[in-house]
Specification:
Oligomer: single chain
Strand order of the largest sheet: 1-4-5-6-7-8-9-14-15-18-19-23-24-25-26-29
Helix content: 10-25%
Strand content: over 45%
Shape: globular
Number of helices: 3
């Protein structure tokens, strides 16, 4: 029995070892299987990552193909001379009691105007450099829809963040000119619109292509850049437009009839501000300005705050007709374009919301104190203005192009004036109310009666060779002429001039997509307030507006306006 017991004991002792060996072998097999599965997963993950990378590259390429970029860069040198004829600088009012000079017989008013003789002056800026970068983009959405845009940076070298106010409205920076007037190095949106092509026409919604319109393309040597004519609108306008194709009705190919609607001033909360019930500084009250041995105590003038609103939105409703023609006379092929436009600018305000950097004006001791950067906003709706324009452009052969534009406006005032100005609190004998004695006035200088004005603009360009072109332009505006062109890209509004402007230029393309331009501008102003749709009325009873603000007749002005400007410029322009 002992050997059997010994064998059983040995078996009992060796059984766990055998089981352990078997367990280790199974575990090793499982580990190997896990390694194989993990390797397979890693290979699948790598394959998936490679596919994702390929898809990203494809999607990126497709997206890149859908966005078309282009643009231009201009560096410009300019030397300018400004001449001011003598004028009376309006300074405010003072009490008539104690006035040291003689007053007209029977003078009963409690106030007298304060003016200061401003002699003839010449101002020169012999060296000014500027850089303008414009990025154009087109994004294809589908076969019918695309997004069109243009981003612009435009600044004077070393210039201020906002333009220095020079009496011209295009130096009041606002959303209508922010990308066109030299200011800061910020890249601003000049155009951004969704364009959808329907069988009957084209719809455009957003910030419209309303700057640099025809016939500006003649001087620039490019294709048409905007819808409205330059003599009508040259501003950044937000709105909606639709152009109907009329060639399907038997008219020449490319004939269009367009309708548009835009907003000029948003009066509601979130737009220009909560102007339904608000107040703003609008000038000075001179009631307490008395006389001292040294002169008027100008420091006694107080800030005048006036109630603003309720205001209405300013809008523009327009129509345009474009007809191209192509014909041949002898061996010469000619192409022409006829543009006709109409705009109703409704509920115009005195000024949009914006900012300006004030320039120095003559001041009496204690009179100044205005901030360097000033914010302005609308104070009243003044009425409507109707505008008609027509342009004829004719290209003869491949080398000669001429054009002629005509504009006519008519104001429809509502009796209101801008609230910006000088105030006086009347004594009880005169009603006891605070009254505005002087200010920026109403539409075209008359808040009550309709006024008209007109302008014309002609020019030509001769391309002597494919690389070298010569051009000349001339425009004239009547004494009350106004056009909405704050985005001209110049320090002064050429087409808004009340007077005459000559321009001559040479354009030389010295390399592919690179050109040199040399030009000269000669402005001769006949009347004050060029570029403004508002102005004060005559200061003297029985005086006509045309006589009151004739720059040759020593007018009384709130700001000095130049009688002439001469500007020589040279620029390098590259396209990409």
């Amino acid at each position: 029995m002992k050997p059997s017991r010994i064998m059983l004991a040995l078996v009992a002792m060796l059984a766990p070892a055998a089981l352990s060996a078997q367990s280790n072998e199974d575990l090793q097999k499982q580990i190997e299987q896990l390694k194989t599965q993990l390797k397979a997963i890693e290979e699948k993950a790598a394959a998936a990552q490679e596919v994702d990378a390929r898809l990203v590259k494809v999607e990126t390429k497709v997206a890149g193909d859908n966005i078309q970029w282009g643009g231009d860069l201009r560096t410009r040198f300019e030397s300018s001379e400004w001449h001011f004829k003598p004028y009376q600088q309006f300074m405010g009012f003072a009490q008539s009691a104690g006035y040291p000079g003689p007053l007209p017989p029977g003078y009963a008013y409690p106030f007298v105007p304060l003016t200061q003789n401003s002699p003839a002056q010449d101002w020169t800026n012999s060296v000014q450099w500027s850089t303008r970068l414009r990025l154009k983009l087109g994004i294809t959405i589908n076969e019918h829809a695309k997004i069109m845009g243009r981003l612009t940076m435009y600044k004077v070298h070393g210039g201020a963040d906002v333009p220095t106010f020079n009496g011209s409205p295009n130096t009041v920076q606002n959303s209508f000119n922010s990308a066109k007037v030299p200011g800061t190095d910020v890249l601003r949106v000049e155009r951004a619109s969704l364009v959808y092509d329907f069988p009957v026409g084209v719809l455009s919604i957003g910030r419209q292509n309303t700057s640099d319109g025809p016939p500006f393309e003649v001087k620039d040597g490019v294709e048409r850049q905007a819808t409205p004519q330059a003599l009508a609108v040259n501003a950044m306008v937000d709105g909606i437009g639709f152009k109907f194709h009329l060639d399907k009705l038997g008219l020449p190919e490319g004939t269009l009839l367009g309708l548009c609607y835009g907003v000029g001033y948003e009066s509601g909360f979130g737009g220009g501000g909560n102007v339904k019930a608000s107040a703003a500084p609008v000038g000075f009250n001179f009631t307490n300005v008395n006389w001292t041995p040294q002169g008027p105590n100008a420091s006694a003038a107080t800030l005048q705050v006036a109630s603003i609103g309720p205001l209405k939105d300013s809008t523009v409703l327009g129509a345009m007709y474009d007809m191209p023609l192509l014909f041949q006379i002898g061996d010469t092929v000619s192409s022409t374009n006829l543009y006709i436009g109409y705009n109703r600018m409704g509920n115009l305000t005195d000024i949009p919301f914006g900012s300006t950097n004030n320039f120095p004006v003559p001041a009496m001791p204690g009179m100044g104190g205005m901030p360097a950067i000033q914010y302005v906003t609308a104070t009243n709706n003044l009425g409507d203005i109707d505008q008609w324009t027509a342009t004829w452009k004719h290209k003869v052969g491949d080398s000669f192009t001429y054009f002629a534009s005509y504009g006519h406006i008519k104001s429809l005032p509502n009796g209101k004036m801008s609230q910006y100005g000088a105030y006086w609190t009347m004594p009880a004998a005169f009603g006891g109310q605070t009254q505005q004695l002087a200010g920026f006035g109403g539409l075209l200088g008359d808040a009550n009666k309709s006024q008209t004005a007109s302008a014309y603009y002609v020019g030509m360009r001769w391309d002597a060779t494919e690389k070298l072109g010569f051009g000349a332009e001339f425009n004239h505006g009547s004494p009350r002429w106004w056009t909405y062109s704050p985005a001209t890209g110049e320090a002064t509004e050429k087409l808004g001039t009340r007077g005459d402007v000559w321009e001559g230029y040479i354009h030389w393309q010295f390399a592919k997509n690179a050109a040199f331009r040399l030009g000269f501008l000669d402005y001769k102003y006949s009347h004050a307030f060029s570029g403004w749709h508002i102005s004060p009325g005559p200061s003297m009873p029985g005086q006509s507006w045309e006589d009151a603000y004739d720059l040759n007749k020593n007018p009384m002005l709130q700001y000095g306006f130049p009688a002439s400007v001469k500007s020589t410029y040279a620029s390098i322009e590259v396209k990409f």
